[in-house]
Amino acid sequence: MNGLHILSELLLMPLIAFVVGLMMVLMMRKISARIQRRIGPPFFQPIYDIVKLYGKDTQISHGLIHDIGIIMAVGGYIGAEILLPVPGMEGIADKGGIITLSYFLMIPSLGMALGVGQCANPNGSIGISRALTSMLAYDVPFIIVVFGAAWHYQSTSLVGMIEYQQMNSWGIVEMPFLATAGLFALQGMLGKQPFEIYIAPAEIATGPMVEMSGKYMGGLFVMQTFQLYTAGVLYASLFLGGGESWLSLLPKAFLVVAIPMSIAFMFPRYKTEDVIRILWKWPVMLALIGLAFIL
What is the DSSP string of 130-169? Predict the structure, then answer.
C-alpha cells in the first residue's frame, strides 16, 4: 500500500505542476500586457496554445538526438517535481535532496543543446552557445545559495529545511543576503529580460527554437510551465517556509514568479558578456556576504 501511495504521488505531482504552471504562464502574459497597456490573453489561452501546437503536423525531425533533446528538456523538470515537497505529498524529496534537484535543473538546458545541435542551424547554434553561457552565469550564484542554505539548515533535505522554517523563522529573515542572491539567480534561470540573450528574436531568429515547430515547440511550452512552477516552489521552500497547505504555498510561489516577471518587462536585454558580469558580480557578492554571516 505504501508503494501504491508513493506511485500515486509521483504521478500526481507533475500533473499539479503542469496545471499550476499554466496559470503562471497566464499570469506572466497578463503582467506583460498590463505593463505595456494591453488587455492580455483570455484565461484559457495557454491551453489553446498547447492544443494548437500538438495538433500541427510535425514533419521535420533531424534525427534521434533531436527527439531525445526535447524528452530531456521536459523530463528534467518532471524529475525535479518529484523532488519538490508540497503539501500532502513529498514524493522522494527526503531521499533526493537539494543536491540531486540541482542536477535535475541542469538537464533541460543540456537536452535543448543536444536537440538543437542536431539541427546544424547556425542561428540555433548561436542561441545554444549563449544559453549554455547563461547557465554557467546563473549556476554559480545558485550553487552558492544552495550550499549556504544547506549549511544554515544543517540538512540537504528540502523536507528538513521546510520543517526548520516552520518551527523557527523563514529563511528570508535569517538569511536575507542569500535570499536576495537567490532571487537574482532565479531571474537568470528563467531566461527572461534582461537575461534572455540566447533567444534574442530580433538578432538570431529565436535561437534554440528556430528548428522547433509543432510538437517540438509544444514540448518547450510544456517545459516552460514546469520551469515556472519549479522556480517558484523551490524558492518558497528554501526561504519562505514552504507551505502547510496549498493555500499558503501557492501565493508564495506565484509572488516569487511575479517579481522577476514584473522586473523583466521593464529592462532591455543585456549582451552575453553583460549577463556573465552582472550575475557573477552582484548575486555572487551577496551570496558570499550571506555565507560569511552563517559560517
Answer: HHHHHHHHHHHHHHHHHHHHHHHHT-S-HHHHHHHHHHS-
The answer to whether the CB of 126 falls within 8 A of the CB of 133 is no
Residue 91, Ramachandran bin (φ over 0: left; ψ between -120 and 50: alpha; else beta): left
Residue-level pLDDT at 241: 93
Share of the chain above pLDDT 90, in %: 46
| DSSP string for residues in 59-98 | -----HHHHHHHHHHHHHHHHHHTTS-BTTB-TTHHHHHH
239-253: per-residue pLDDT in tens? 999 988 999 999 999
Helix (H, G, I), strand (E, B) or coil at 241: coil
194 preceded by a cis bond (ω within 30 of 0): yes
182 to 75, 135, 149, 185: CA distances (angstroms): 24, 14, 10, 5
Count how many domains the chain has. 1
Q: Which one, of 136, 155, 172, 179, lies nearest residue 98 by Cα? A: 155
Which among 64, 187, 75 has a CA at the least distance from the CA of 117? 64
- Per-residue pLDDT of 160-215, as tens digits, reads 999 999 999 999 999 999 999 999 888 888 877 777 776 666 555 556 677 777 78
Interhelix angle for 215-239 vs 64-81, to 10°?
30
Binned at pLDDT 50, 70 and 90, residue 146 comes out as: very high
User: CA–CA separation, 105 vs 123, rounded Å?
Assistant: 24
pLDDT for 246: 94
Q: Which of 221, 234, 217, 183 is nearest to 81 (CA)?
A: 234
Residue 147 has pLDDT above 50, yes or no: yes
Handedness of CA 100, 101, 102, 106 (dihedral sign): positive
CA distance linking residue 212 with residue 128, whole number of Å: 13
- DSSP 8-state secondary structure symbol assigned to residue 195: S
- Domain boundaries, position 280: 2-294
